[in-house]
Amino acid sequence: MDLLLVRKAREALAGALAAAQETGGSDAVAGEVASAVGALFELEQEGAQPKQASRLGKALGLLGGVAEALPRLPVGSAARTGIEAGVARARVLLEQAVRPPGAPPGPRRRQSSIPPPGSPPRNVETEVGFLTESNFFVGFENDLSDGGLFVSTYERMGVGTHVIVKFTLPDGHTVTARGEVVWGRLANEATPDAPPGVGVTLEGLTAVDMKSIRSFMAKRAPIFHPG
User: By three-state DSSP, how is residue 211 classified?
Assistant: First the structure.
């Protein structure tokens, strides 16, 4: 584990904590961020110790809780932007910190698994709700234009796999869209709060689909994943 990146993640969270403390009504968020900062500080102090994975898992779990709680808390827009930016930056740094030595930067992609040309699309169904592991993801543009849907699954699908994904949102609207796997995440004991699955693009969405998706994303923050 790269402890320098862990320190940078802690520093990013310090900025998120400052943003949370600047506005009233966000004590719960500030407490979660502060606990994550503490977990990372302990991880830095311990170094390569047996408790390392549990410390990191605790920090990632707390950050996930912050992302879940933000849409439901009466924090100001400026504060929310600062918190989200700090949390997103920390999560990216922590993902990099646990990357095996020699692994390429960016998400773990399985280029050798690219399906042969002409392969039929795979049918994928998942649940998307306020507590599901499957959720929408966005990149630096903070929009579906550089994101898509993270499908939580242990089924392996190589980058480039064409899919037809179907899911129903909490408002009852069912979406069926074409897509392509653009990144994957394997199960990792060091990060038990980061479920395995694949990120897929969403193509051919209708205006009704987008209205329902945007309504959902306003209530549950999407996952940040750089392209």
Answer: helix
- pLDDT, tens only, 58-72: 666 666 666 666 655
> Count of residues for the chain?
227
Rg (CA), the chain: 18
Question: Which residue matches tokens 């918190």?
Answer: 83
Tokens of residue 60, six digits = 């990632």
- DSSP letter for 203, please: B
The pTM is what? 0.51
Q: What phi, psi does 183 have (nearest 5°)?
A: -160, 160
Angle between helices 3-21 and 52-69 (to 10 degrees): 30
pLDDT band with cut points at 50, 70 and 90 for residue 105 = very low
| Contacts of 78 by beta carbon, 8 Å cutoff, 6+ apart | 19
Residue 197 DSSP SS3: strand
For residue 109, pLDDT beyond 50: no
Q: How far is CA 165 from CA 58, 78, 151, 174, 212, in A?
A: 32, 35, 9, 11, 16
